[in-house]
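Ticket opened by: R.M.
Priority: normal
Category: complex prediction / small molecule

The reporter submitted a protein together with magnesium ion and asked that the result be attached to this ticket for the collaborator who will pick it up next week. Submitted input follows.
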Amino acid sequence: MTQPLLKVDDLSKSFGGLAVISEVSFEVPAGGRLALIGPNGAGKTTMFNLLTGVYRQDVGTVTLDGEVIDAYPSRARIGLGMARSFQNIRLMPHLSVVENVMLGQQSRARGWRDFVAPVSAFGRSAAYREAEDLLASMNIETRPGDVVATLPYGIRKKIEVVRALAAKPKLLLLDEPAAGLNAVETASLRDFLLQISETGVTLLVVEHDMSLVRSLCTSTVVLNFGRKIYDGPVSKVHEDPQVLEAYLGPRHAGEKEAAHV
Amino acid sequence: MSGYWIGLITILSINVIFAYGIFLAVATGQLNLGGAGFQALGAYAAAYLAMEMDQPLFVTIASGMIVAGVIGFAISFPILRLKGVYLVLGTFAFAEVVAGLILNSDALGGATGLPVPTFIDWDVPAIAAVIVAVGVFWLMSTRFGLVVRSVHDDEVVADLMGVNVRMVRVCAFALGAALAGLSGALYAHAYSFVEIQVFNASLSIYVLLYVLLGGAQTAWGPLFGAAFFTLLPEALRDTLPALKEAVFGALGIEGAATPPDESWRFVILGVATVLMMIFRPEGLITRTMVERLRPLNRAPRAARAEAAE
Amino acid sequence: MLLLQQIANGLMLGSVYVTVAVAFTLTISILNFLNFTIPTLFMLAGMVGWSLAFWGLPFGISGPLPWPLALAGGVVVAIVASLIVERFTFRYLKTRYGDSTEHAIPLVSSLGFLLILENLVRIEHGSDAQRFPGPSADLTLSLAGIHLRVPQVVSLAVVVLLVLGLVWMMKSSRIGRMLRAIAENPDAAGILGIETRRVVPVVFMLTGMLCGLAGALFAVNYGEVSPQMGEDIGSKAIAGMVVGGLGSLWGAVAGGVIIGLIEMMTIHWAGADTVQATVWGALLITLLIRPQGLFGHHAIGKGKL
Ligand SMILES: Nc1ncnc2c1ncn2[C@@H]1O[C@H](COP(=O)(O)OP(=O)(O)OP(=O)(O)O)[C@@H](O)[C@H]1O
Ligand SMILES: [Mg+2]
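Result attached by the on-call engineer:
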């Protein structure tokens, strides 16, 4: 019960001699909602890339649900229960919404039978219905023929989250889900994420919008220049002197956050 | 049916199958500029088995497909490691090496070519083309097709979603090679003769252009592209002389040697290519366009449920 | 002695390949663009040169021109054609739709131009090879028992000067520095105030000039031109570029010469029919074993534009 879902131990990564992540350790409890924050270039996206295997760490281990996952290739990690979204929306532009979500189911496809099973709207296949139901349960109403590129930004952000959900992950990694959204959309996104969290999915969220972090997450890890400078409850983060310094003092911190949106 | 139509249907069917062969590779984002090489493999395999071993039609055509497919599968492992321009050059070089080797093979007739005893009429290529077209449409509507299209759009994300990108590319490439081989085998039997000069670099270029101009996002693209550029010269048969005169008049050339019609067809293909790359680089038939033509898909979920009742 | 003679011939043959290979490698290294019109520009210069020397200017403006003037005309036409190609293949064809084949847009467009130019020449002059009324190709020079034809020696000298000039230009001149900045990073170059739109045509001018000169040298050396003459040279030049390494000028020089030698050796030992297999085989093996070639950079030609 006390075992964390995700455990990051002493992780380091450098690009051409430049240390981007240095000796970072933290844990995400099962069912928890943890925020990973820090100024621009702190290494948050790089951390996600290390967790999902896009890059290999130089040192350190990542443990998911009690299993060390370092040896798994990036392709296999989603099958272990870890799905992610991207900082810049990376939906497949030429696929429809439902098809994008069906791509999220890919890690659950087994054997050649699943590969030749029809997934089109005409066949009303199981995969298709499942994707459509998932979208509907998240209150996203789309037409099957909608190609992603034609949809509004806020909807696409949500669809990316739903695509990750389609893998039925235990841990959901979200890279700045609220970036580019207005206040109304952000509020709607928060409810959406809380709804996901209630189904038992653990959330690890990179976010610059501190009001969203406060209302969504319980604890937070702060990175600065690749080092962990804070690890604790969200409510105390603004009292930490190191964090305040990282964000250039309390008054400037507010401005900086605003600048990210 | 008259000889004219028989010839037309035969070449149309062969080109459609050939275009689908290249399409499968392009649909995963890999430009295969070695189409002629795979077609040549299929054609020569079929011709050799028919001529030297007296094999029946069924065997020769199947063998043409298998030989090209197996060689495509084997070569795809090293060749698909290449990216971008390197891949284009690699596939192109492969086709040239195949042609160069056949040219030097006495068993395959070298520069003189091989006669093919078993003749097929238009019906075999036509049936094969229909089967291939239906097959590719079906394939694109399966999870495999979904994965193929995702790899084309963003291979990093596809990989993170659990797609074995390399395997998908290899399968699509090898399957495409097999289809190109099939088109070659049909060619060999339909024309009763194979010579390596036919399977030249230009052929690889044309078939890739059919696919790219038709559109590589859906299975409609290659069908349309191949059909359009095969039938275009026929459609131009009457208007071409007038067009020629107009062009010559404009250029102020008088009494020039009567130009070969083939050349005009390729000039038009070239102009179409340049214009398409400027105005519609994703090809004539796009996903969005196909979706717009499906009325059912324009309705939201609830409305469709009602309509279904 | 026969072998030595073949090596000498290979070097001479290589010099034409080198010029075209340098044109290929220049466009690839600066613009990441495999320009398939290059062999066509080469052919265009030769055919236009022949046409001017045989028929004269169009519209009856003049009768047949003397051959040096005719070849100069061919080179000018190649440069103009290359600039037209730039206008339509490259200028407006940047990232329009985001996916993995978009880097191929200029390449595909250049395939279109290849078809247009080659077939227009066919329509105008037919497909037959034409005798070029140049200086006598039989003028020979004997050196230690090896016979060298004077036009070949002149070509070699011209090519060496051309390449040296280009290398100097890329290294030391202002335009060369701008081009290298664009090659490094087009966006950053734009921010630094380099007007890509003005500078990029220079690459195409150079391409047209190199191809035009190569076509002229070919016409003089072989005394024969045809609408097909680009295909063979183009493939040898591409092979030379790949063997030498994409994006490296000296690589293209070395590669062109190597291909010339491979060709002569193949003819010497195995016959002319085998050349296609050995030259393209060399290319394919290079790609599979060492894609960066002898001197190239692995990054070039890999990613998107
Ligand atoms: N592939 C790479 N090669 C070299 N440097 C890299 C690479 N990826 C990231 N970096 C560097 O690592 C640092 C951290 O980048 P990262 O994208 O992780 O920051 P971030 O915290 O996500 O910032 P932001 O808030 O702007 O998204 C940056 O300085 C970046 O330039
Ligand atoms: Mg980031």
